[in-house]
């Protein structure tokens, strides 16, 4: 595990034709992920055991958490408790910075 991480040293993982991500860092208790979305990308409604906190680095997103929707822009953030249904629609190209606790082993290749 690295102490300092250079964004340029990390490769993008293609999730689908409109979404790609970089796992920035992780240990068993915490994971930080950078996710880039193109307009129209849809993060389907889903749930997971991990607590998630996300920061909108850029773009505009419609975020749905527990059947409530809100438009979020650069500088906004949201919190998803464990096992709560949530999803996202990218309205304008953007980047989310996601923190998960514990780490998401399904994101490791």
Calculate the terminal CA-CA distance, rounded to whole Å: 15 Å
Q: Structural class of the helix and strand makeup?
A: mainly beta
- Overall mean pLDDT: 96
Percent in strands = over 45%
How many discrete domains? 1
Tertiary shape: globular
Short description:
With 109 residues, this protein is mainly beta.
Descriptive terms for the model:
single chain, 109 residues, mainly beta, Jelly Rolls, 8-stranded antiparallel beta sheet, 8 strands
Task: Explain this structure.
The chain has one domain (20-103): Jelly Rolls. Helices cover 0% and strands 61% of the residues. The protein has no helices and 8 strands. With 109 residues, it is an all-beta fold. Strands 1, 2, 3, 4, 5, 6, 7 and 8 form an 8-stranded antiparallel β-sheet that branches. The chain has strands at 13-16, 19-27, 30-37, 42-46, 51-65, 68-73, 77-80, 86-101.
Please write out the topology.
Elements: E1 13-16, E2 19-27, E3 30-37, E4 42-46, E5 51-65, E6 68-73, E7 77-80, E8 86-101
């Amino acid at each position: 595990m690295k102490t300092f991480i250079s964004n340029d040293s990390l490769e993008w993982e293609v999730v689908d034709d409109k979404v790609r991500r970089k796992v920035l860092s992780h240990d068993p208790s915490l994971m930080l992920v950078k996710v880039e979305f193109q307009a129209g990308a849809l993060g389907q409604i889903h749930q997971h055991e991990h607590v998630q906190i996300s920061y909108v680095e850029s773009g505009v997103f419609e975020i749905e958490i527990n059947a409530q929707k809100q438009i979020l822009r650069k500088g906004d953030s949201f919190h998803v408790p464990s096992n709560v249904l949530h999803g996202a629609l990218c309205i304008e190209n953007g980047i989310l910075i996601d923190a998960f606790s514990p780490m998401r082993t399904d994101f490791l290749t």
